[in-house]
UniProtKB/TrEMBL annotation:
It comes from the Eukaryota. The keyword Nucleotide-binding applies. The keyword Kinase applies. GO terms for cellular component: autophagosome; cytosol; phagophore assembly site membrane. One of its GO terms (biological process) is autophagosome assembly. This is Serine/threonine-protein kinase ATG1. It comes from Aspergillus fumigatiaffinis.
Length: 636
């Protein structure tokens, strides 16, 4: 395969881009001919239909052919990348390479139709997938025999990439495109925005720009060698770690690290390993564990994984029944990863801690103090940690506090670091009448005092809130919240439907009143010390509302956290604001809410039984009152 620095002119489309309104004219025949002598349909006009997505490396639009011929292809996805943000043409390199005829027959990659440009942007035209991505199907449950089929197709694509010196580096469900949905399943690998080509003679990569939840430990600096030095480079084997995360997610209907980065760190340090999902066979679980190895030297390659018996066996004894979720499912005995049998404590106590113990304080301390390497000796039962990892030991040691001997296993699993008490925010003037301030949703320490939006609403509102959200105003004038401050109004979980969002159109909206502004979303990332989240400043009386949004800084004990819960603003009047918290499925995360003032915050876990009946919080921010009343209510 040619070098990534090839000439791309053979894939360049002759195009005239009109920006306002946007449309593209492609001339497919020789321009030396006058228009009346050209072939019929040789001039195409493409127009934008809607935004399909937006990320770090560009915006993807759906375009529709309005005139001309396109060989039966009347829609396409076009990715726009600003030239000033392009460090190189790595995505073009990957797409041109794997769109060549000898690779097209494999069906492994998103088809590339060509590229064009204007003075400021590069446009990449590619196949459109009306069935969406793998992430759209995971929540529905995929039987194991179908998971196996999808995995095999991904392995073929990865093996092909690795054979030709490419590393994808961002394999995740959002980048697996569905050509044919289940039960037949035909999937393709796409989004080569962070893929990397390695020249012959080179063996390693040094930069990481993928998605942390699926990134291999060596990219994030969480693997150390026996000489106690961290890896500074990595190979295409990083894609196999990502694949293990994807296969687990398909099997369990949940991400591999719901308490990321804590569970992730503990796995890398040999102190935790995920339980085998009920919905996958032992052969399938063995396949995952062969890829989910912190040491890259012990991880299966794509070629080796294609030979695993879960992939090759005609009778893998897959589990194809209903996916069992929730507390009704019987929990299996705790499992540990291969070779991660036990850890002997250092110090005088000499106690052995189970590999799945949970100690947030110790993990927090590890962030500041580099852990040490435990050497491997013996196979099992000799009092030292035995590791089946090849060539390098990557397990790190932490010390446990002695007072944990009296903590039950259930308490250990659920325990989370308590947030510090909220301190008065500096903008105390906003506490004066007649304004009502509700903030400090995560024990905010600092108010950045940056008014993001101000909107006069002529109607009563119900707003989905979150401990870390951004609000956007879309074209119909209503409010939508998205996933993170770095995202945009289109990266949302509504399939880009216009609001108002009525009940019944989304499973998490069942039972909620109509005209709630937004459905439910999950895995919102919060970073300590970064400006995230919102608080509400509301004045006026019903039904008219004046809503102003400002940012605050979270201050959790850990670097990053994921939360997922649902809050609806029920009512607002001067100095008094009512929130209702609804029961939703989650993983036991703790969320805090509070008024701006000292010692005023409340914490609730959405695994607590009372939340299932609904909790109502009424904040009274009248000066010298500044309190909150908690009561229960029956959901709609």
């Amino acid at each position: 395969m040619a070098s990534a620095s090839r000439n791309f002119d053979e894939y360049r489309l002759n195009a005239v881009v009109n920006r306002d309104p946007y449309f593209v004219i492609h001339t497919l025949s020789d321009e030396r001919l006058p228009p009346e002598l050209r072939r019929p349909g040789s001039v195409q006009r493409w127009e934008r239909e809607k935004v399909l997505g937006k990320g770090t490396f560009g915006t993807v639009w759906l375009e529709v052919l309005r005139s001309g011929k396109a060989s039966g292809r009347e829609v396409r996805a076009v990715k726009r990348i600003q030239k000033k943000s392009m460090r190189d043409k790595r995505e073009l390199a990957a797409m041109t390479d794997f769109s060549r005829r000898k690779y097209l027959h494999t069906g492994s990659f998103v088809e590339f139709f060509g590229w064009f440009e204007d003075s400021e942007n590069i446009y990449i035209a590619m196949e459109y997938f009306p069935h969406g991505t793998l992430s759209d199907y995971i929540g529905q449950g995929i039987p194991e025999n179908e998971v196996r089929k999808i995995t095999g197709q991904l392995l073929v694509g990865l093996a092909l990439m690795h054979e030709h010196d490419y590393t994808h580096r961002d394999l995740k469900p959002d980048n697996v495109f569905i050509d044919t949905p289940g039960p037949e399943w035909s999937v393709k690998i796409g989004d080569f925005g962070v893929s990397k080509y390695v020249n012959k003679g080179m063996t390693a990569l040094r930069t990481g720009t993928g998605t942390p939840l699926y990134e291999a430990p060596e990219i994030q600096g969480d693997v150390i060698q026996e000489n106690e030095e961290e890896y500074e480079e990595y190979t295409n084997i990083v894609d196999m770690w990502s694949l293990s995360c994807v296969v687990f997610e398909m099997s369990a209907r949940t991400v591999l690290f719901p308490r990321w980065p804590l569970d992730y760190k503990k796995l890398c340090w040999g102190l935790w390993y995920p339980d085998k999902p009920h919905t996958i066979s032992q052969k399938g679980w063995d396949f995952i564990t062969k890829l989910l190895v912190p040491d890259p030297a012990g991880r299966l390659s794509a070629v080796a994984a294609l030979k695993h018996e879960w992939i090759t066996s005609r009778d893998p004894q897959p589990l194809t029944g209903e996916v069992v979720q929730g507390p009704a499912a019987a929990a299996p005995p705790p499992k540990k990863g291969p070779g991660l049998d036990r850890v002997r404590q250092s110090g005088s106590s000499g106690k052995v801690q189970a590999a799945n113990d949970y100690d947030n304080d110790a993990l927090t301390a590890l962030s500041a103090k580099p852990p040490q390497v435990i050497s491997s000796s013996g196979e099992h039962g000799d009092g030292n940690l035995s590791a089946s990892l090849q060539r390098r030991t990557v397990i790190r040691r932490i010390s446990h506090s002695n007072n944990r001997d009296n903590v039950s296993a259930d308490d250990t699993h659920q325990r989370q670091p308590a947030p510090p008490k909220a301190e008065p925010l500096p903008n105390k003037v906003t506490l004066r009448n007649p304004k009502a301030i509700v903030g400090s949703l995560s024990g905010a320490e600092t108010d950045i005092d940056d008014e993001a939006f101000r909107l006069d609403l002529p109607f009563s509102i119900k707003v989905y809130g979150h401990s870390s959200s951004t609000l956007f105003i879309i074209k119909n004038g209503m409010i939508c919240l998205d996933q993170a401050p770095s995202a945009n109004a289109w990266i949302i979980r509504t399939d880009h439907q216009e609001l108002p969002f009525r009940e019944g159109l989304h499973p998490y909206c069942e039972g909620l009143p109509p005209y709630c502004l937004f459905p439910y979303w999950t895995y919102l990332l919060i970073k300590r010390g970064m400006p995230h989240g919102i608080y509400y400043e509301i004045e006026g009386s019903a039904p008219k509302r004046l809503l102003k949004i400002e940012y605050y800084v979270t201050r959790y004990h850990v670097m990053e956290y994921y939360f997922h819960f649902l809050v609806i603003l029920e009512e607002a009047r001067p100095n008094i604001v009512t929130f209702r918290y609804y029961d939703v499925p989650d993983n036991g995360r703790m969320g805090t809410v509070g008024v701006q003032g000292p010692d005023k915050h409340k914490m609730f876990s959405f695994n607590q039984p009372k939340i299932r009946r609904g909790v109502q919080l009424v904040f009274n921010t009248t000066p010298n009152v500044n309190d909150v009343q908690v009561s229960e209510f029956q959901p709609y």
